[in-house]
Amino acid sequence: MRMKNRLGVMFLCLTFRTSATQCGLVPQQRYHLLSEFNNLNMTNAQCISELKPRTLLTCARACLDTNNCTMFNINNNDGQCLLFSATFLSEINSSPLDGARMYGRVSDTCPLADGYVTFDNPTACYRLSLVRKTWMDAKADCEGDGGHLVVLEDVDKQQQVMEATAAIRDTEAVFVGLGDIDADGKYVWVDGRDLVNPFWDSGEPTLFGNKHCAVLYNHGLHASNCDIPSYYMCQIDTTMMVKWKPFLMMFSS
């Protein structure tokens, strides 16, 4: 059935069942077609599972049931279903794949259209900017979105972000919300917390030169000059309101 808003909805529930598990009650999820990646194989993405054959709905359900899955790719030609953890997609790292369609999970609080993706545990929205800015300009850009430069005090979050940026860290530095601008050698996150769980790369931080802002580079954090334009990552803190209702999945494009 076609609808004006181009939403496809699947609704399955037997009303006489009493338990949430029996009735298939799960959080409402919405997936958005990332049309700019149509017919592309995202070779840099963090694939966590490969399934086939699948339909659009069963691939989406598999993503919903898989821990840390926030994106999936369904091939309209052969039904191949690829599940991905949170990753930052770029056409730079791709190859042609006819029939491929990439979908990303969206929420009311993550502006996917602006390049943000959802990471879980804890849930927040993240955007990797491939436009180089100074640290202060990057900070202002993130704050303009209602967020801040990324804070990576949580060890699990460190691992997720390191995996999601693996394709670029060997050649590009990425500003994060960490620096010792106010007190030399005392690194503080932009949310005011001290750096308690450091993951500096070997030999870092260097204590010489005008290096007071931290970047992700190679295998961990590096101290960098705040005025050298670099890529950067923004974060929008959010608590996703889980609305329990019969299995409901929506797609938009």
Integer tally of domains: 2
Content-based structural category: mainly beta
The name of the CATH superfamily of the largest domain reads Hepatocyte Growth Factor
For the sheet with most strands, the description reads: 8 strands, mixed
Query: H/E element string?
Result: EHEEEEHEEEEEEHEHEEEEEEE
Low-confidence stretches: 1-27, 240-248
Ends distance: 16 Å
What does this entry look like structurally?
With 253 residues, the protein is mostly beta strands. The chain has two domains: 8-113 and 243-252, Hepatocyte Growth Factor, CATH 3.50.4.10; 124-237, Mannose-Binding Protein A, Chain A (Roll). It has four helices and 19 strands. The protein has helices at residues 20-23, 56-65, 135-144, 155-164; strands spanning 8-12, 26-27, 29-33, 40-41, 47-51, 71-75, 81-84, 95-96, 100-106, 117-119, 124-133, 148-149, 174-179, 188-189, 213-217, 220-224, 230-237, 244-245, 247-252. Strands 10, 11, 12, 13, 14, 15, 16 and 17 form an eight-stranded mixed beta sheet that branches. A seven-stranded mixed beta sheet has the order 1-19-3-9-6-7-5, covered by helices on one side. It has a two-stranded antiparallel ribbon with strand order 2-18.
